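Supplementary Methods, section 5.1.

A reviewer requested that the exact input to the structure prediction be made available. We therefore reproduce it here, unchanged from the version used in the analyses.
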Amino acid sequence: MSRRVRNERLALVSMLSPSVLLIGMFVLAPVVYAFYLSFTNTTLLGFDARNPKFVGLDNFTYLLTNDEFLSSLGRTGIFILLSAIIGQTVLGMLAALWLHKTWLRGKGLFGAAVLLPMVVPEVVASLAWASMLYSGPRGTVNQIIGVFGIGAVDWLQTMALFSIILVNIWRGIAFAMIMFQAAIEDVPQELIEAAHIDGASAWQVFRHVTLPLVRQPIFLFLLLTTITTAGIFGLVYFLTQGGPGDDTQLVALYIYDRAFQFSQIGLGSAASVILLILVLIFGLTYVRFAKIEV
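The structure derived from this sequence is encoded cell-by-cell as follows.
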C-alpha cells in the first residue's frame, strides 16, 4: 500500500470518526440499551427499582395480549394510513403538480403558504390548533363551518382522532410537496410532450408517464413519513393527551405513560421495540416496492 493511499484512508477515517462516534453514542447505544431493558422488569419505583431482574419475553407476552396496547397499535395504524400514507402523500402530490404548472400565477405565495407549517415548532402548532379547534362558537374552525349553517362541533372531544389526523396532514404536506416537486422537475419534458401528441389525457400522462418515473421518491417519502408519524408524540400530547378516554392514545403515548407515568421502564422499552420492528417491516416493504421495475 502506497503512502498516498494510507494518507487518504487516514484522512477519511479522521473525518468520519466524529460522526460515527456521535451516531454510536446517541443512536445505536440507546437502541441497544432499550433492547436490554425490554427483557427486564426495570422500574423507577418499588422493590424492583434497585434490583431489576431478567424476565425474558414476559414483557412482550404481556403487551401482545394486552387490549390497551393492541388498541393503541390499531389507532396508530389508522393514524399513519389516513394522515401520512393517504393524506400527506395525495395532497403533497397535488400541491407539487399545481406548482409545476407554468401558467400558474402567484406560485411563490402558494408555495410559502404550504411551507409555513414546516417552520412552525410542533408545540406552537399544537397550541394554535387547540385554539382553532375550540369547541365554542368563537372557535376558528367552528366559525368557518358556521358560514355553511353547521353548528359548533366539540372537535377535540367528539372527533378527536379526526382532528389530530387533520393537523398531522397539515404539518406534513410541505415536506411531501418539496420531495415530489423536485422529482417531477426531473421528468423529461420530451416524454410528456410525446404522450400528449399521441392523444393522452392529462390523467393518462400522469398515470403512465409521470407517476412511474417518480415512484422511488414517493416510496422514500412514505418511508420517512411512516417513521416520523409512528413516533409522533408532542402534537398529540399537547392537543388531546391521548383523550378523551383513550380515543387518541397512540403507541408513542402508551410508551410514555408506561415508562414515565407508571415508571415501568422495562415494559415501555418492550413496547418501543415492538414499534421499531413494525416500522422496520414497513420500511423494508417500501424499499422492495421502490425497486420494482416498470
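Residues 3-38 form the longest helix (36 residues). These observations are discussed further in the main text.
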